[in-house]
Amino acid sequence: MTSFEHIARAIVAGALYGMVATTVAAAQNAPPGDAANGKRLYLADGCFTCHGRSGQGGAYNGPAPILAKTALPFEGFKMQIRNPVNDMPAYSDAILSDRDIADIYAFVQSLSGRRSPKDIAVLNN
Fold it and tell me: For the chain, what are the domain ranges?
């Protein structure tokens, strides 16, 4: 391997490390939220229509991301709610406060997320 390839790999590795460290720090900096209120808001505001009742994702009007145990840091989650990409409607502060978003984030983080097929009884018969 040439020295240029070593340098390029070191730069890429450093960038990836920085992104992971930033994501972990951002997730740790999420404001505390009330998951019970987040569930109420998630259902009342219709998030479940596209993302499923347990955050499993769906395809109501195209693919909707899985939200259960999202790896998206809080700030990215909030940005997506305020200025969404694709077909998701925007939720201004008048509709969902930052506190409401923190509660919804706490709720989706409390969900079980993907399960291993080995943990699903019907798939093991």
Answer: 1-30, 32-124
Listing DSSP states for the chain in one string gives --HHHHHHHHHHHHHHHHHHHHHHHHHHTPPP--HHHHHHHHHHTTHHHHH-TTS--B-SSS-B---TT--S-HHHHHHHHHS-STTPPP--TTTS-HHHHHHHHHHHHHS-----GGG-GGGG-
pLDDT in tens, 73-102: 999 999 999 999 888 999 999 999 999 999
Whether the pTM exceeds 0.90: the reply is no
Domain 32-124 of CATH type 1.10.760.10: yes
pLDDT of residue 2: 59
